[in-house]
Fold Putative phosphoesterase.
Amino acid sequence: MKNVIISDIHSNVDALLAVIKEIADKEHDIDRLLIVGDIVGYGASPNECCDIIRYLVYGRREVSLENIYKISSQPYLSPLERDNLLNAFQLLEKKGIAIGGNHDREAVGEPSLTTEMNPVAKIAIDWTKDLLTKKNLKFLRRLSLRMKLGKEEFEIVHSTPAYPKGYEYAKNAGVLKYTNLWSKVTFGGHTHRPAAYIYTKEIRTVNASVLIPADNYDMRLMLIEKESTNKVESFHIDLSKGWKYYINVGSVGQPRDGNACGCYVVFDSSSKHLCFKRVSYNTEVASKKILEAKLPNELAQRVLKGV
């Protein structure tokens, strides 16, 4: 089964549209599109992003094609590009499975039990609360925090499986252990930094720190991680050795690994092949929308710089 996994859209409709189009163009015969939380927050288009995800999950009985076409009709896209986007949406209709993240929970008045939002994030989420439609508030409210995917030995969670309500930052997966990963493969997000880690019963090692060298990724890496990290974009998952994997799929709408392009992951659960992909989009427009919404300038700059 071919799965595409995305996370941390953060109300960035321009990034989301670009990723949707890329997935439809490049990733043929997709069985599922998994959305791993934080649909809203930070960016200027929360309702548009929620409407898109609702369409991908429930189809046109929830969100009309006319609405999707309206969202797709960005001024910088040609009529042909808009038509292609609409076709892309129809190819992916009802293939979506979504869970919630901490910003989604905050937007419906359910903050994390263990952490408080930083002031910039809080400004953005308060603005988002006032803007969301009743349908989108209801949609976000009913999203679960983690989900096991049938008998396929993998699950999705925004942060950590053992305590998703706490929204621990799994930076370099340092807070995780073999014993509190409950599936052989776990897909998460939350840090906005793509990476992949192997856990064994004896020791945690790194299989890949994807797309950016470890010494530039986080200076707090453990020594074993600094020594073992490889810069790779694809690899095979080996389930024969009793290992467990934690895959951070990065961010669609606000990457923080020094690369402003949106990120998604392709995972074939039959062949066990996994690949990280990046998609360029109109960051200037996304940044301008944030400023026009009178959201903090810091958020507009992060979109441009990927930090």
Q: What stands out?
A: The longest helix spans residues 13-26. The chain has a mean pLDDT of 87.
